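Subject: for your reference before the review

Hello V.,

The reviewers asked for a structural picture of the protein, and I figured it would be easier to keep everything in one thread rather than splitting it across files. Below is the amino acid sequence we used in the manuscript, unchanged from the supplementary table.
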Amino acid sequence: MQDEAGYICDSCGEEIIIPLDLSAGTHQEYVEDCPVCCHPNIIHIEIDANGEISITGSRE
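And here is what came back from the structure prediction:
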């Protein structure tokens, strides 16, 4: 399984690569500031039964 993934910042449009904490469960949601524009993003991480990871970021 991968240990990092990327999302597109809703504010500046940059791709942001973040580390994944797979021990936190298959459904995760938390707020993280964009390292490029500093706007907060709500990060949504879903891991399905096959280990496929879906990550999205939306404005807080």
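For the response letter, the relevant points are probably these. The chain is about 0% helix and 55% strand. The mean pLDDT is 92.

Happy to draft the paragraph if you're swamped.

O.
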